[in-house]
Write a structure and sequence with these properties.
It is a single chain. The chain is mainly α. Among the domains are: 200 residues, P-loop containing nucleotide triphosphate hydrolases (Rossmann fold, 3-Layer(aba) Sandwich); 63 residues; 66 residues, Orthogonal Bundle (Arc Repressor Mutant, subunit A), CATH 1.10.10. It contains 48 helices and eleven strands. The strands form three sheets. Strands 2-3-4-1-5 form a five-stranded parallel β-sheet, sandwiched between helices. A three-stranded mixed β-sheet has the order 6-8-7. α6 crosses α7. The longest helix is centred in the C-terminal third of the chain and has 21 residues. It is flat and about 110 Å long. The two termini are 62 Å apart. The relative contact order is 0.04.
Length: 1014
């Protein structure tokens, strides 16, 4: 370990005395941030200082040992600082490899011994031993001189580099000063047990008043604390799982985390740090890779070679396999293997030797040149095939090492891919595609490789690659049977990608006499009917029933087709019945129901209808089914549905996290069918929080996704309707007249689109009625009410549709009974709060009833995290003369960002974005004077003088798709000069009072209140 004090460049002809002089006068190390996971060790060192200082004839020795990066130097630096504060004379130095040839260099540097001024007597200086003895006496004298002024702390680091004379002198000096006020803190890097430093520590450890201070790997709690310190946020579990690659080593952990941050692979939102992407399987952070490689370079050459071979063999390998690749026996590699184990690169796992973490293996693997790595992979494959013929283990090496034209490699890769396509589709896709790369166009197994690759890619994605590969192969000359099988797989991939029309065209019946024609015929017909359900629900229902008659009864797949057809036709209750029946019988037909899993179809319907309990349980089963059946292409859909359920339950942070993860997974898989719902969830979260900038970003991405994703049929119509509704909500919140009119026109342009939206979004009906009425468009308001009532009449057993119709009717006709029914029957908590607020506004002269409904709605909004809605209702209560405390007591520091209250933080966020006090007041339902008061408190706590200073120092965060930071609400357009009471995007409640004149867009919301869309 290099010295922490730079050694100046020294001419090699200088005497040892000159070299010693350059090493003298070492500055004390500076203490750093609080040490994590070293509390017990720190207490022992403090105890040593306390006991040394407490009596005139007491001293002691602390022997600090730990691996490189364990925190020895930090611990010693803090010890020096505390010792100096407590009146000790601190003598500090660290040994290093450069000065190892100079006897006593660390002690001379620590005790400031000037060897260039004093010289030994001639009789002593004539021999090296005599000179060393004289130096030890001088060191003892220097120590005694310090002791006359008070207690002394001698702190020596990196003694693994100390010369033999220094080690001998330490033993002598510790013995001489045993009854004096000298605290010895000696540290070395843990290593060879038979080394001279280790023997000195063993001898000193047996002495009285000595204590060993071992620095083990950090435990999980300390790792989490250190990660939180480095990231300034609480680390998420998946980030802590990645942190295990540091093996509890503080230096390695810091390198890993700092490397991830530097490479923008960590996102921080709401005080929580999460990985951006797959950190576990992605590239190794450069900082961490450099640290691992540097530590490996310090090992013996034989150990380094063993690690090179081991990292090619994989995460774990048998010792005899490593030895065989190295051309020796297990016994011959024992020394190298033992060093690799001692250095914690490798660990024992049963009969194998394994890397302690995949990140470490990947860091070492990256140091091997490509040709050498490929050669080692081929050697490993030959070894495995020659030993036991293991096709899959050999293929794992050939995928990295096979050369073009290697017939045996192609055969092995094809066999392995075929064997695992249903259980490990990612592996199968990798193997099959690699085999296609190295095989010629006329190879006899090429057609089978294409089929396996397309099936694997359809199971795991990316779907565009599966579609392109299948279409390319079908464009050539293929045997009839192989072409039929490939068309079946292509149809499934097209359906999952949302391209229903193309899927229907591809899924024709197989030619008669084709092998396995019956099974193929069923699968292809099922795929065709699923596509038809998106394009023509009536035709799909009719033909599905005909197919049931032909087969002699229903199947899970055909029931699923019927369920989707009924849903698209607006027969929601019947759709649920068919979907539940499909799920009940799906277990008997596993694999036949592809590409649409009945559980996915049912979970989608239940999520839209806000049947959260049943949907959540179903999603849990679906996730297990996806893993068991090897269908990771559906993982993104499951996450996005989970995010919608979390939003319905008011878990905004979880909703945003799951939506961001689901969108990333869907994008990776090339399955855009559920992406619009994910972007809608993110936009809704941002709107409820009042972060209009984030909402704008999400709505823009939503609109672009709908335009570019290539969906057709019912999925495309539903996506466009949902995007238009979100755009309408955002336009209303931003008071964008033209944008709102355009979005509402898009929603109402197609009756089917409107019906689809009302099925999927229980809150949409009342919102559209309220907004249309506010815009003076009674016809559109009435159209929405009629559509909601038709859905309710056709689906009398679906509570969410009944509640939505009652809510829309209550707002449109000022019907208190209908609103009460909506409050009682809405499945969505936010919609219940909205209906209660509408009911409160309708109570009119009954002040007590109004207050009761408003308070109930406000409490609901608060629990759901809908801060803007809560603030709006609070303001309405204030206008009724009702004031409720809404702040919470919290222990906060006196200054800094952590000292701000929630309200002050919100004000700071908005001001930092450039809003005026009046605009902030409009956003927060406060007066401008109150905003000014909060701003003065912010300046005082942050020690700022101006809004410019606030904007400059504001800790902003931008987290990409999952951006949902409550700390950064969005600025409003510069139209807030209008009265603060005219910006509500909700429609007017019954008996709404007139609002004062304002901008061109009247308030599409509750009377005299700015709000966010609901």
């Amino acid at each position: 370990m290099p010295s922490r004090v730079d050694t100046p460049h020294t001419d090699p002809t200088l005497s040892s005395r000159s070299l010693l002089t350059t090493a003298a006068f070492m500055p004390l190390p500076r203490p750093g941030p609080r040490l994590r996971g070293r509390e017990q060790q720190w207490e022992r060192l403090l105890h040593l200082l306390d006991t040394t200082r407490s009596g005139p004839r007491r001293g002691g020795v602390a022997l600090v040992e730990g691996v490189a990066g364990a925190g020895r130097s930090r611990l010693l630096g803090d010890t020096c600082a505390v010792a100096a504060q407590r009146g000790f004379s601190v003598a500090y130095a660290d040994a290093d490899e450069v000065r190892r040839a100079v006897p006593l260099a660390p002690l001379i540097a620590a005790l400031d011994l000037r060897t260039d001024v004093e010289h030994p007597p001639l009789d002593l200086g004539a021999t090296a031993a005599g000179h060393s003895a004289w130096l030890i006496d001088r060191l003892h004298a220097s120590l005694a001189e310090r002791l006359r002024r008070g207690p002394v702390a001698v702190v020596l680091d990196d003694l693994q580099w100390a010369d033999i004379t220094t080690l001998a002198a330490l033993g002598a000096l510790v013995a001489r000063c045993a009854t004096q006020q000298v605290a010895w803190v000696l540290a070395r890097r843990a290593g060879e047990a038979e080394s001279l430093p280790a023997k000195l520590f063993a001898a000193l450890g047996d002495a009285e008043r000595s204590e060993r201070v071992h620095l083990p790997p950090l435990d999980d709690r300390a790792v989490a604390e250190l990660a939180a310190d480095r990231l300034s946020a609480e680390p998420a579990p998946e980030l802590l799982a990645c942190a295990k690659g540091a093996d509890g080593n503080p230096a390695a952990l810091v390198a890993l985390l700092d490397g991830l941050v530097e490479e923008q692979r960590v996102r921080v939102a709401e005080g929580r740090a999460r990985p951006a992407g797959d950190v576990q399987n992605g590239p190794v952070p450069r900082r961490f890779g450099v640290l691992v490689r540097d530590r490996a370079a310090a090992l013996q050459p034989g150990t380094r070679l063993l690690l090179d071979v081991a990292c090619v063999l994989g995460h774990a390998a048998l010792p005899e396999d490593i030895a065989q690749i190295l051309g020796g026996t297990t016994a011959s590699v024992l020394p190298a293997l033992q060093e690799a184990l001692d250095s914690r690169f490798l660990v024992c796992e049963g009969d194998t030797i394994a890397f302690r973490h995949e990140l470490v293996r990947q860091a070492l693997l990256a140091t091997l040149p490509g040709p050498l790595r490929g050669s080692l992979h081929r050697q490993a494959a030959d070894m495995i095939i020659g030993r036991d013929g293991g096709v899959l283990p050999a293929a794992a090496h050939l995928v990295h090492g096979a050369r073009r034209g290697d017939t045996r490699a192609v055969t092995v890769l094809c066999s392995a891919a075929t064997a695992v396509v249903a259980t490990e589709p990612r592996t199968a896709a990798e193997l099959a595609q690699r085999a296609l790369e190295i095989t010629g166009p006329l190879h006899p197994v090429r057609a089978n490789l294409v089929r396996v690759a397309v099936e694997a890619l359809t199971r795991c994605g990316p779907l565009p690659r599966a579609i392109a590969l299948a279409e390319e192969s079908l464009g050539g000359a293929l045997p009839q049977e192989q072409a039929t099988v490939l068309r079946c797989e292509l149809s499934a991939a097209l359906l999952l990608a949302g391209r229903a029309a193309r899927a229907v065209a591809v899924a024709g019946p197989p030619p008669p006499g084709t092998a396995a024609a019956e099974g193929l015929a069923e699968r292809m017909e099922l795929g065709r009917l699923h596509g038809l359900a998106d394009l023509d629900a009536a035709a799909a229902e009719r033909e599905a029933r005909q197919e049931m008659t032909r087969r002699g009864g229903p199947s899970a797949g055909l029931r699923c087709v019927l369920a989707r057809a009924h849903w698209h036709a607006g027969r929601v209750g019947e759709a649920l019945r068919q979907a539940r029946a499909a799920v009940a019988s799906a277990g008997e037909e596993r694999g036949v129901c592809r590409p649409f899993a009945p559980r996915l179809a049912l979970a989608t319907m239940l999520t839209h209808l806000r049947e959260t309990t049943e949907a959540t349980a179903l999603l849990d089963v679906l996730r297990g089914e996806i893993e068991a059946e090897g269908r990771p292409v559906l993982c993104g859909a499951a996450k996005i549905l989970g995010s919608s359920l979390a939003l319905a339950q008011g878990a905004l942070a979880e909703a945003a996290t799951q939506a961001a993860g689901g969108l990333a997974a869907a994008d990776e898989a090339g399955m855009p069918r559920y992406s619009p719902l994910g972007w809608r969830t993110l936009a809704e979260v941002a709107l409820r929080r009042g972060d209009l900038t984030a909402a704008d970003e999400h709505v823009e991405r939503l609109t672009r996704t709908v335009a570019e994703q290539g969906l057709d049929g019912a999925a495309a119509t539903a996506s466009r309707a949902g995007a238009a509704w979100m755009a309408a909500q955002l336009a209303a919140a931003r008071r964008d007249v033209e944008g709102l009119d355009a979005a509402l026109a898009a929603v109402h342009a197609d009756p089917y689109a409107l019906r689809s939206l009302l099925c999927e979004e229980p809150a949409a009906a009342a919102w559209l009625v309220r907004t249309a009425a506010d815009r003076g468009d009674g016809e559109r308001a009435a159209e929405t009410v009629r559509a909601a009532q038709r859905l309710a009449a056709d689906n009398a057993d679906v509570p969410s549709l009944l509640a939505a119709a009652a809510h829309a009717q209550g707002v449109h006709q000022r019907d208190a009974d209908a609103l009460r029914r909506a409050v009682q029957t809405h499945r969505d908590p936010w919609s219940r709060a909205s209906a209660a607020e509408d009911l409160g506004a309708l109570c009119g002269a009954d002040r007590a009833a109004t207050v009761m409904e408003f308070e109930w709605a406000m409490a609901k909004y608060a629990r759901l995290g809908a801060a803007r809605d809560e603030a709006r209702v609070r303001r309405r209560l204030r206008r009724l003369g009702v004031r409720r405390r809404h702040w919470k007591h919290a222990d906060r520091p006196a200054s800094g960002w952590a000292s701000l209250t929630d309200t002050e933080r919100r004000v700071a966020d908005l001001v930092a974005q450039g809003l005026t006090n009046r605009q902030v007041a409009t956003q927060m339902f406060l007066s401008s004077h109150t905003v000014g008061f909060h701003l003065r408190q912010i300046y005082r706590k942050l020690r700022l003088r101006s809004r410019i200073d606030l904007a400059r120092t504001h800790p902003g965060v931008d987290d990409g798709p999952g951006r949902h930071v409550t700390d950064r609400p969005a600025p409003q357009p510069a139209d807030a000069g209008a009265p603060a009471d005219t910006a509500s995007p909700r429609g007017p409640a019954p008996h709404a009072p007139k609002t004062p004149p304002g901008p061109a867009l009247p308030a599409p919301g509750h009377p005299a209140d700015t709000t966010q869309p609901r």
